[in-house]
């Protein structure tokens, strides 16, 4: 059994999605037929910052691997960074440190790591979210881990903007989560898992 962990905030939980799948459920559903040995785990805490994510993800993941930590079993973790560092005024320096610590801890525990940046939110927040996304991309590059840009492709996407205008609390609806899943599936996702790229 190979384990894949999605770690993040309410966007990882799929809050606001009428189908209750979110982007993680859609990605898992498209991936499982290619690799039935994968076990997906969503570790979501709504409203958390990168510091809070860094302080809790490893214990939660290791508990799900069992008492022996699944030695030798391939382990993957995708850190999906939300927007709460912006909302709660976390400094860029602290965000950078938190991301480095999360990635380094994952590597030390034998996880293969991927990082996804935050998607756009409210129009008045988007300049700062873009800066956070750039910081995430830089952190991934410094640690040589794959990065998924959720901001750039969605910032001017009509369906995403409609979801932001229609949904509550800057949460996407069904179409928005579908777009996020599309971005993951068309990233280096399959290579990261050691799978052949399917015809999507």
Task: Provide structural commentary.
By secondary structure, the protein is of the alpha/beta class. The chain has a single domain (2-192), classed as 3-Layer(aba) Sandwich (Rossmann fold), CATH 3.40.50. 47% of the residues lie in helices and 14% in strands. It has helices spanning 10-13, 22-31, 50-65, 84-87, 92-108, 126-143, 158-166, 174-185, 189-192, and strands at residues 2-8, 38-44, 75-80, 111-116, 147-148. Strands 2-1-3-4-5 form a five-stranded parallel sheet. Helix 2 packs across helix 8 (174-185) and helix 3 (50-65) runs parallel beside helix 5 (92-108). The protein is globular and about 45 Å long. The relative contact order is 0.17.
Brief summary of the model shown:
The chain has 200 residues and is α/β, with parallel strands linked by helices.
Write the layout of secondary structure elements.
Elements: E1 2-8, H1 10-13, H2 22-31, E2 38-44, H3 50-65, E3 75-80, H4 84-87, H5 92-108, E4 111-116, H6 126-143, E5 147-148, H7 158-166, H8 174-185, H9 189-192
Parallel strand pairs: 1-2, 1-3, 3-4, 4-5
Helix pairs in contact: 2-8, 3-5, 5-6, 7-8
């Amino acid at each position: 059994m190979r384990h894949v962990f999605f770690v993040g905030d309410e966007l990882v939980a799929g809050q606001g999605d009428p189908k209750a799948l979110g982007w993680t459920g859609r990605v898992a559903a498209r991936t499982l037929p290619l690799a039935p040995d994968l076990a997906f785990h969503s570790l979501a805490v709504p409203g958390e910052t990168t510091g809070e994510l860094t302080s809790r993800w490893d214990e939660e993941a290791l508990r799900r691997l069992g008492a022996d930590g699944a030695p030798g079993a391939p382990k993957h973790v995708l850190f999906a960074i939300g927007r709460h560092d912006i909302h709660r005024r976390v400094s860029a320096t602290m965000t950078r440190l938190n991301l480095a610590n999360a990635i380094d801890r994952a590597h030390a525990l034998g996880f293969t790591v991927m990082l996804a940046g935050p998607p756009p939110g409210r129009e008045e927040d988007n300049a700062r979210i873009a800066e956070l996304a750039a910081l995430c991309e830089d952190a991934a590059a410094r640690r040589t881990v794959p990065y998924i840009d959720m901001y750039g492709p969605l910032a001017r996407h009509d369906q995403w903007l409609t979801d932001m205008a229609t949904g509550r609390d800057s949460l996407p609806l069904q179409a928005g989560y579908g777009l996020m899943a599309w971005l993951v599936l068309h990233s280096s996702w399959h290579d990261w898992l050691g799978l052949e790229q399917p015809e999507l």
